[in-house]
Design a protein that fits this description.
single chain; 260 residues; alpha/beta; Rossmann fold; seven-stranded mixed beta sheet
């Protein structure tokens, strides 16, 4: 199956090694979602699509669920599989969300992990409905740094814009698309009762952890020279040392609907 690709702002393969150290998606939001899915069955089978290196898939496995981590980037899969021995209930599939290879009606829950915006939405939703059982659940999740209420991160972003005024960020089209998710899930045939969840959490991070988070951005190095990218990372580290933030704020979102 040929899948139309959206602009990716560079290769995820190049940043795969940084992903296991990224801040976690909200455990509180995941627990709310798991509790609702378990109203359908005590032992739900999930597919985490666009799984990256398995952050949400392994979090769900740690909460007693089993299922699949579906990821189109081979290097992301390789890094995720190295973390997998502790989670035997998660099986990896190297495939796009539009064509997962999973069996018809085999899943109780399909979840996209900050990845739905990279898909061809109509083909991805068609695949979701194919692999989801009747009354199963579909969730789109997103995880972003808080650029509304975190002055430290706003300062960092302002300095990046000063260094590269013409920079295009992957975040902007994602935030714009997020505005459509609730209506999309409420209006899509045979999906119903979409709920939206959001939480902001302050996470303590060392300079090393925060630099690792920045090193995982794939959009900036796809548009600048290696020397400029190195300068940006040096600026981030220097600003962290100067400001010494007690915590960094991140936002977790979910749009969650049930199949008829």
């Amino acid at each position: 199956m040929q899948v139309a690709q959206k602009r990716s702002f560079g290769s995820f393969s190049e940043v795969a090694e940084t992903y296991p150290g990224r801040p976690p998606y909200s455990r509180r939001v995941l627990q709310m979602l798991v509790d609702q899915v378990k109203n359908l069955t005590d032992s739900p089978t999930f597919a985490d699509i666009g799984a990256g290196t398995g952050a949400i898939a392994y979090a769900l496995a740690g909460m007693g669920l089993s299922g699949y981590a579906v990821e189109p980037d081979g290097e992301m899969v390789a890094v995720g599989q190295r973390l997998g021995p502790a989670y035997p209930g998660v099986s990896w599939i190297n495939a796009p969300g539009e064509c997962t290879g999973l069996a018809d009606g085999s899943l109780d829950w399909v979840c996209y992990s900050t990845s739905f915006h990279w898909t061809n939405a109509s083909e991805a939703l068609r695949e979701v409905m194919r692999i989801l059982r009747p009354r199963g659940f579909f969730t789109i999740t997103t995880f972003l740094n808080d650029l509304e209420n975190d002055p430290f991160q706003l300062e960092i972003e302002a300095q990046v814009r000063d260094m590269v005024p013409a920079l295009r960020r992957a975040r902007l089209p994602l935030v714009a698309e997020m505005e459509s998710y609730e209506a999309l899930l409420n209006q899509y045939p045979n999906l119903r009762n979409c709920i939206s969840l959001a939480t902001t959490e302050a996470i303590s991070m060392s300079e090393e952890q925060y630099l690792n988070y920045w090193a995982g951005f794939h959009d900036i190095p796809s548009q600048v020279t290696p020397e400029v990218w190195t300068s940006i990372l040096q600026m981030v580290g220097a600003t962290f040392r100067n400001r010494r933030p007690a915590s960094i704020r991140f936002r977790s979102f979910a749009w969650h609907a049930q199949r008829a």
